[in-house]
Design goal:
The complex is a heterodimer of chains A (165) and B (293). Chain A is an alpha+beta fold. In chain A, 32% of the residues lie in helices and 14% in strands. Chain A folds into two domains: 75 residues, Beta-grasp domain (Ubiquitin-like (UB roll)), CATH 3.10.20.30; 70 residues, [2Fe-2S]-binding domain (DNA polymerase, domain 1, Orthogonal Bundle). A five-stranded mixed beta sheet of chain A has the order 2-1-5-3-4, with helices on both faces. The longest helix of chain A is centred in the C-terminal third of the chain and has 16 residues. With 293 residues, chain B is an alpha+beta fold. Classes of the chains: A alpha+beta (165), B alpha+beta (293). Chains A and B meet through strand 4 and helix 4 of A and helix 2 and helix 6 of B.
Chain lengths: 165, 293
């Protein structure tokens, strides 16, 4: 079954079984394996991507349901090849990852928060990442990373292009 | 963790969706998919066909009604409801429940109709609907039905919606005129998890502080969300400013047939329900007392 979607700015036409999740389509059909398969039933948040501006779980959307959606994955987050987004940089600096398996999900969820909320409170950050599980960090450094990114983005006197948060 | 094979259709109209559902007894409605897709992944659901109703335009929207009520289309995403000024104004109890529904990524996809049709005993939207006295609008192959919320929940994830019918909208009726206060509280292991117990309260006072309407509902603790109508019966007509909620709530909660499992015992759920109910009533009362007359 056909499904036409935009992934990281590129128009893609998929031809997949109706039962294939967006997660499997991204990974197996498009080779975008930065979106991680964790629990595959909507508990862990490792597969979080951005769909039409909202953080969503790619394992809880069928590829055929994604017809017409505009998807951003971890591969589409950096402003250019070889660079990192401000948020990704902050994750590195505050040691907000250890094994890294959950990290792409956290980055996408936090990117949506930072686009929608200029100066998020700690409580707002905790709410935004409450659907993402990390078994390494204890979350403290992840929250610090998002706070650091929010501060840096706030201090920048430029209009951030879409996707570069 | 891969579903069984099924076919997929995405009808444009309510009528087409009803025809598809009527023509295949193993067809299942797909709205936001935030409960159905995990059930497919675990193969707890094995449908022959998914009928995706999410893009039927007649099923989406949040419309303020002339009588002060609010109509919300079944396929309206939870995130739209969470951010809606109309919901805050016309259905404030629902607005207070929304941040408790799952997590932001599930609210971005999940729908109000899906939550009502699924009727998880711990779900927040059904509880807010019960405490608000909402009406569930349903389309069957032959006509339309309006289901009152008091008889809607028949068992865990079992509702009065007939086979092959489609929930089309939820109507939140305006509360009786007066000073309105609402509150929603729940306790779960982690934010966004299924509630061990939850309480939704709505109080309307007249100008003298007498209670003219009181609805208190408990979720998560029993097989279905429960309206504690005895509490309303005991307190309506009273000067609530001086009322202690302990007796009325204690008596009503003692009657509940609470469920216990690995995560929380029946006793714990009963105690939590009682505490949350009193907290919600107190908060709703304070809000009503502070509301303009």
């Amino acid at each position: 079954m056909k499904s036409e979607l935009t992934v990281n700015g590129r128009k893609i036409e998929l031809d997949v079984e109706p039962r294939m999740s967006l997660l499997d389509a991204l990974r197996d059909e498009l080779g975008l394996v930065g979106t991680h398969a964790g629990c595959e039933h909507g508990v862990c948040g490792a597969c979080t991507v951005i769909a039409d501006g909202e953080a969503v779980r790619a394992c809880l959307i069928l590829a055929v349901q994604a017809d017409g959606l505009d998807i951003t994955t971890i591969e589409g987050l950096a402003p250019a090849r070889g660079e990192l987004s401000v948020l990704q940089d902050s994750f590195c600096e505050t040691h907000a990852l250890q094994c890294g398996y959950c990290t792409s999900g956290f980055l996408l969820a936090a990117t949506v928060l930072l686009r929608r909320t200029e100066n998020p409170s700690r409580a707002e950050i905790e709410r935004a990442i409450s659907g993402n599980l990390c078994r390494c960090t204890g979350y403290t450094q992840i929250i610090e990373a998002i706070e650091l990114a929010a501060e840096r983005l706030g201090h920048r006197n430029t209009n951030e292009p879409e996707g570069a948060a | 963790m891969k579903p069984v094979p099924f076919s997929y259709s995405r009808p444009d109209t309510i009528e087409d969706a009803c025809v598809l559902l009527a023509g295949d007894e193993d067809a299942v409605v797909l709205a936001g998919g935030q409960t159905l897709i995990p059930m497919l992944a675990m193969r707890l659901a094995r449908p022959s066909q998914l009928v995706d109703i999410a893009r039927i335009s007649a099923l989406t929207g949040i419309n303020a009604l002339d009588d002060g009520g609010l109509w919300i289309g079944a396929a309206t995403r939870q995130v739209e409801i969470e951010r809606s000024v109309e919901v805050l104004r016309c259905a404030p109890l629902l607005a207070k429940a929304m941040p408790w529904v799952g997590h932001a990524p599930t609210r971005a996809r999940g729908t109000i109709g899906g939550s009502m049709a699924n009727a998880d005993p711990a779900a927040e939207i059904p509880l807010a609907a019960l405490a608000s006295g909402a009406v569930v609008e349903v389309k069957t192959g032959t006509g339309t039905m309006e289901l009152t919320i008091e008889g809607y929940f028949l068992g865990p994830m079992v509702t009065a919606v007939p086979e092959a019918a489609l929930v089309t909208g939820i109507r939140f009726q305006a509360p009786p005129p007066g000073r309105l206060g609402t509150a929603f509280h729940e306790v779960a292991a982690r934010r966004g998890d299924f509630a061990f117990a939850s309480a939704a309260a709505r109080i309307v006072l007249d100008d003298n502080g007498h209670c003219i309407d009181l609805r208190l509902a408990i979720g998560g603790a029993c097989d279905v969300p429960v309206l504690l109508s005895d509490v309303g019966a005991a307190l309506i007509g009273q000067q609530l400013r001086r009322t202690d909620f302990d007796d009325a709530v204690g008596a009503a909660v003692a009657e509940l047939d609470c469920i216990g499992d690995l995560h929380a015992s029946a006793d714990y759920r009963r105690r939590a329900a009682s505490t949350l109910a009193k907290r919600a009533l107190t908060e709703a009362l304070n809000e009503a007392l502070g509301a303009p007359t």
